Amino acid sequence: MTKRIVVKIVWSCIILVGLFMLMSDASFFPALLTAVGLTIFSFLLVDLFVLPRASNVLATMMDAVLAYLFIWALAANNGWSMTLMEVLTATVAVTVFEYVYHDWLIRNGIQQDKQMKVE
Predict the structure, then answer these.
(1) pLDDT computed for residue 2 by the predictor
(2) What's the pLDDT at 118?
């Protein structure tokens, strides 16, 4: 379990911190806190609860909605100058990563819960 969350935190932070600093006036530490917060929240809600009970596509769609709302709210709250297209770009980048990450989780360790399956 520790390896899975570390992999997700490292790659999400590389993607998000880079995009936040590139596309807005975010400084490193607030961008890092935002990336870590989104990653941990997403891991607890989607990767541990939804993914074992649903498909990769459904879990990835939930991650996309969560990422958009989280990035939009924190960018507005922190006063970052992110346009709608920049927020969507960050959301798409996270979503692509999440799809690949979920596939890796399914192949290497997450147990599918057949009794609680959502179709």
Answers:
(1) 80
(2) 47
Q: How many domains does one find in the chain?
A: 1
How far apart CA 105 and CA 9 sit, in angstroms, is 14
Cα 61 → chain centroid: 11
Q: Which two tokens stand for residue 78?
A: 């922190």
Chain mean position to CA 102: 11
End-to-end Cα spacing for the chain: 26
**Cα separation, 116 vs 119, whole angstroms:** 10
pTM for the full model? 0.85
Contacts for 28 with CB less than 8 Å, ≥ 6 apart: 17, 21
Tokens (6 digits) for 118? 């959502």
Dihedral sign for Cα 32, 96, 58, 55, please. negative
The residue to which tokens 């607030």 are assigned: 30
Show Cβ contacts of residue 80 under 8 Å, excluding neighbours closer than 6 positions: 20, 24, 25, 26, 74
